[in-house]
Amino acid sequence: MKRQNVYGATYTSLAEPQLSAELARCARPQSIGRADTVSIQPCATPSERSQDRFLVADWLISDHIWHFHAVFDGHAGHECVDHVVAALPAVVHDALVAGLASGPLDVPELLRKAIADVDARMGQDLQDLFPGGLDGLSDDEIAATINDNGLNSAKVLRCMRGSTVLVALHSGDDVWVASLGDCQCVLGAKTTSGWQTTVLSSNHNGTDADEAARIHQEHPGEPECILRDRVLGAIAVTRAVGDFLFKLPASYTTRVFLNARPGFQISSKIADFLGRNLTPPYLSAQCDIQHVHLPSLDASEAFLVLASDGLIDLSGDTYGLEHREPAVAGKKWVEVLSREDRTGNAALYLLRDAMGWDADAVSSLLTVESEQGTRWMDDTTIVFTKLV
User: Fold this and answer.
1) Do residues 195 and 334 make contact, with C-beta atoms less than 8 angstroms apart?
2) What are the residues whose beta carbons fall under 8 Å from the beta carbon of 172, sequence distance 6 or more?
3) pLDDT tens digits, residue range 91-121?
4) For the chain, which domains are there?
5) What's the pTM value of the predicted model, to 2 decimals?
């Protein structure tokens, strides 16, 4: 049955079991080891496909199993997030091998360095294309260097895009969570006093007072370094891999990025903030780390939820959350996942609950007919991991 939503867009109202089948088709639920996963973007337009990525891997290193679970939320394009997914796990794995072989292991420092090094390597690869700098080069010479449809193009494009990073590294009784950007990680633990919720990620966003204050402190005399809750008035996240428009001098944007092909989706917006780029970098690639020693929880059950920020958006609408804070939404996620009647893939169950159990409401999210072919909901990825 065809209906119209509140915005006047047409959608198809589905009944069960067709609705659950369509949700599963779009979300592609998987169970990988101890993890349940989903990742959804219903818009079928190729250019609007999901920029979320996730990875679940188990590594046997020095007779110990290390569980590497990660969620990446790309933005402005796919090149950066695809590069990070390909590069970061190997960097972390190799650092673990080397660290365990050489002595006491500092996992927080290992994760901080791995993420920062992937970002720094991207930036250095770009700058190495111009060993003498940009001065003295014509725009034609720069364009010929960067638009080779090969390695040079790839190096430039991944620097023009960006990605958040959320990693949970678990071995034995210990869990470390590294967060860069605004994806969320929530720990649910069942203790003698009931289920407890702990947020293990940071909210690196311009709306966060501490992050805004940090950037203002790093750029004194630049009141517009945070404008309209965005860095330079342009980007919501305050920490990310890539996004070198906010990390390199403005000349790299005007002479390199704006001459790249393919370029930005909306290059006219670049000029709006370029004049504010006075003392880069404005975005950081330094992640925050939290550690949990599982026995200290004294919990009979425990699990982690890693999610891209699309889950916050869905939760806010469905649960009627006035403040879309990770602590508020996370408490609801733990409540949902701890239900005694929960069945099947845990990530899919949480996604369905966040979308709503009303068939028509979920149908309106899955089957909208968009004349412009643009997405109508944020990419949403969930990785659920049982710890205890």
Assistant:
1) yes
2) 64
3) 999 999 999 999 889 999 999 999 999 999 9
4) 2-127+161-204+239-243+283-386 (3.60.40.10)
5) 0.96
